[in-house]
Amino acid sequence: MISRILSFLLLLYALCFVIFAFTLGKPAAAGAKPTDAAVVLTGGSGRIEHAIDVLRQHKARRLLISGADPSVTKADLARRLPGSAALLNCCVDLGSESVDTRSNAEETGRWLAKHRFRSLRLITSDWHMRRARYEFRRVLGDRYAIVPDAVRTEPSFLTLFGEYNKYLLRRIAAWVDL
Asked: Tens digit of pLDDT for each residue in 121-145?
């Protein structure tokens, strides 16, 4: 009996992983309404570039780069992203308080309240979007409209497997109130 239950749980785990892997986050719809703010979570290629494009296209008024290394400056970013210096100086804030997805959401909540924003575009990698949305919704509740805007990637099996397990563990930890 125990082996049947364990087999069922293992099969359920594997099936949920397959569903997770085939339902990654998607870019925001082309017709999505502009938001007050955009928040990009550091840690993946193409994220900051996409966030700057969101500002250029007037899909958000201001951008928080959450999880930035404290030693990184706007001048560093301007050198890495040619033609973005004016936009970086006027409309971008560097947040260096966060170290993980949950603290990204907490940092963002303080930033949104400070600027009195009501809506945000959440920018992260497609494989990270599900956990990011979960953390942001837990921290921010329904006070803010969130438009997910995933950056397409080609994650490896190990990246997907690791993210799936982080997501499951975070859901379990929240369920038992850790």
From this structure: 999 999 999 999 999 999 999 999 9
Task: Tell me how far apart the alpha carbons of residues 28 and 113 are, in angstroms, rounded to a whole number.
Answer: 23
- In contact, 140 and 130? CB cutoff 8 Å: no
d(CA 28, CA 44): 18
Helices (H), 31-156: 47-56, 74-80, 85-91, 101-115, 129-140
> Sign of torsion, CA 37 51 99 150?
positive
pTM above 0.70, yes or no: yes
3.30.300.350, 3.40.50.620, 3.40.50.80, 3.40.190.10: which CATH number matches 24-172? 3.40.50.620
Distance from the first to the final alpha carbon of the chain: 31
